[in-house]
Amino acid sequence: MNKILLFFVMGICFILAGCDKDDNEESEILLTSQELIQTTWDAELYKYNENGEVEHKESCIIEFLTDTEGLYINGEGSGDPPAVNKFYYQVDKRKIVFENSALVGIWTLIEKSQKQIILQAYLPQEYKTVLTKKY
Questions:
Q1: Residue 27 domain flag
Q2: Superkingdom of the source (predicted)?
Q3: H helices of the chain, where?
């Protein structure tokens, strides 16, 4: 009887140990504004046509100053002379919302490493932005 009870208790322990809710959350890619504060990034913005081909490419430099504000310098492909512009943003886990910039709209984080962030949006066409960390 003791062996059966011991086997039952050990089985319950294994089941409970394997059902950790945090395991799924740790594998999810998340972003916080704290990771962005006082960092500077080269940004490549790609607009795709309905066939999935790059229709337009634009580059700029993005600097995140605080947890809600930043600066961007428009570059090649923008159609405007280089200028420094202020933008606002909000980060919520996998979503980042930009206002007043070339990246205006709601973007989804699809890939993240120490040196690179890839964002995707549908505005309504598909857009991707590759941010490569400078500093």
A1: no
A2: Bacteria
A3: 2-18, 22-27, 33-36
Least confident segment among 10-14, 39-43, 120-124, 125-129: 10-14
Report the C-alpha gap between 121 and 107 in whole angstroms: 5
Range of the domain at 64: 33-133
Threshold 0.85, pTM exceeds: no
State the amino acid at position 113 in one-letter form: S
User: Residue 7: inside a domain, yes or no?
Assistant: no
Q: In which residue are the tokens 């504000």 written? A: 69
Our count of domains for the chain comes to 1
CA atoms of 15 and 75, how far apart (whole Å): 55
